[in-house]
Amino acid sequence: MQGPPDIQSKSLSAQIYAQLKYQLMAARLQPGDRLKIRDMAQSLGTSETPVREALLQLVRDGALEMKPGYYIRVRRLTLREYLELREIRLLLEPHAAVKALPNVDDAFIAELEQVHETLIRAELEKDYPTALLANYEFHFSVYRRSEMPQLIDILERLWVQIGPLLNFLYPFGHPSYDGPHQHLNVIAALRNRDADALADAFRDDLIEGGRSFLKYLESIEPEKSS
Fold this sequence. Notes:
Layout (H helix, E strand, L loop, with lengths): L11 H14 L8 E2 L1 H8 L3 H13 L3 E4 L3 E4 L4 H22 L5 H19 L3 H16 L5 H14 L19 H11 L2 H13 L3 H10 L6
Antiparallel strand pairs: 1-3, 2-3
Helix pairs in contact: 1-3, 1-7, 2-3, 4-7, 4-9, 5-6, 5-8, 8-9
């Protein structure tokens, strides 16, 4: 539903930044992936300067890190960092969903159902990149309906850091639910225009759906790379 941002009107460095930001949020890049300025510039048909500017901005955003020898790689959050960002998400994401509610119509809900079906089908087929992308699109298609650009910017800055870590979600921390999938509860709450149920569904999706993921992160924490 979202796809890569429309970047035609932006400067070249801003275009590259927007594309990389999207790839990070949608879990298209994994922790430890090395980003080579020269190679990226050649593939994009541009000079190294705008690529370097975009990468350094993402370093400042906390999504990338610069290592000795001046190479840049996707940063892997520590468990403590993830838990802090998770706590903030538990506050802000349900709020964004509730603010989106007045701007949701039946056509949007139908589109959201299709995104969820794509997610479930991808999980069954073990097409995990598609599942991760669908999950990102499900969440942000709702949040962006809030029409609160400052709030969306904050959420994007959270997801640009956690997105790569979500590659560990499948198959190690596959979401599981005690009852219906929380995305179905989101859809039902949107259809019923029930703000409280909507906030609960987004909150429970992160807590309930993320239980196995959190356990896996805890199990690999001693294995932090240098």
